[in-house]
Amino acid sequence: MLSRGILLKVKAVELMEGGGFKVKRPFPGQIPDRLVDPFLLIDEMGPSDYAPGEAVGAPDHPHRGFETVTYMLEGVFEHRDSAGHSGTLKAGDVQWMTAGSGVVHSEMPAASIVKRGGRVHGFQIWVNLPASKKMMDPRYQDIDNDDIPTATSQDKLVSVKVIAGQAMGVNAVIDTQISIIYQHWIVNPGGKFRQPLQSNLNAMLYLFQGDDLLIDGAQLKESELVIFHQGDYIEFSLPEAAQRHVEFIVLAGEPIREPVVRSGPFVMNTLSEIKQAIDDYQQGKMGVINN
């Protein structure tokens, strides 16, 4: 069994997205696509504390050719789309949206947060689709926090929420188009764990709360992402002297190894497919959100 050491480490950059909300983004932009394939983007949304009337989100916008995965940690968001879907994402909930051939989508803070203010924190991750699935029918999976499997180590110092894949003997309930691992880990001072990860998967870890997580002898700080070498497992620990617990996500996926051409909310294999996506959107073929 071979441990996965750290191949690359980057610090997330802060940007403004959507209607003007803050995100921390480790990639794209800092890491070669081949090292993160099949993932296209990680955005940590917030954490942001809004006063009454300040909360913003992502108004009507299209997607084609990939999947968006929204995971709320704090706050409440409401989503609607041109296919007639609508719903509410609360703390701990996940929405796995397969855009496929195309939808127009809206993700906005709940009316209660807009009116009274509040804290918003979460993730949006983009997962690529292979050419054979880029034009599939759009699909949604909305999973409540209570339905997402969790597990805890015997010493109670390490816990995991299994959004996709498997950990500590529990399996995710989400059905994915390609082989994906998405896990939310919490490690308390003195905690240590070894998590198997198949050698054929590209794998990464993003630390979003706390400092001093140890991986392969290296110390990670908040908002840092590491890409792992090939191997059979990752091992992480937090010193007993740490002042607080840490939280991070682990992502892994089987590389698609196909050309990637991006243009804003469209991700296809060729420039001509991008032009077609733009034309289809402008002609209303992806629909509109009915108010």
Describe this structure as you would to a colleague.
The structure is a single chain. By secondary structure, the protein is mainly beta. The chain has one domain: Jelly Rolls, CATH 2.60.120.10. Helices cover 8% and strands 51% of the residues. The chain is built from 3 helices and 26 strands. It has helices at 33-36, 111-116, 271-282, and strands spanning 6-11, 13-17, 21-27, 39-50, 58-63, 66-74, 77-81, 86-89, 94-98, 103-109, 118-128, 139-143, 150-152, 158-164, 166-167, 170-171, 180-187, 192-196, 202-209, 213-215, 218-220, 224-228, 233-237, 246-253, 261-263, 266-268. The strands form 6 sheets. It has a 7-stranded antiparallel beta sheet with strand order 1-22-19-24-17-14-13, with no helix packed on it. It is globular, with a radius of gyration of 19 Å.
Task: Write a short abstract of this structure.
By secondary structure, the chain is mainly beta. Helices cover 8% and strands 51% of the residues.
Please outline the major beta sheet: 7 strands, antiparallel
Name the helix and strand elements from N-terminus to C-terminus, one letter apiece: EEEHEEEEEEEHEEEEEEEEEEEEEEEEH
Strand order of the biggest β-sheet: 1-22-19-24-17-14-13
Give the full name of the CATH homologous superfamily: Jelly Rolls
Radius of gyration over all CA atoms, rounded: 19 Å
Q: Tell me, rounded to a whole number, the average pLDDT.
A: 92
Low-confidence stretches: none
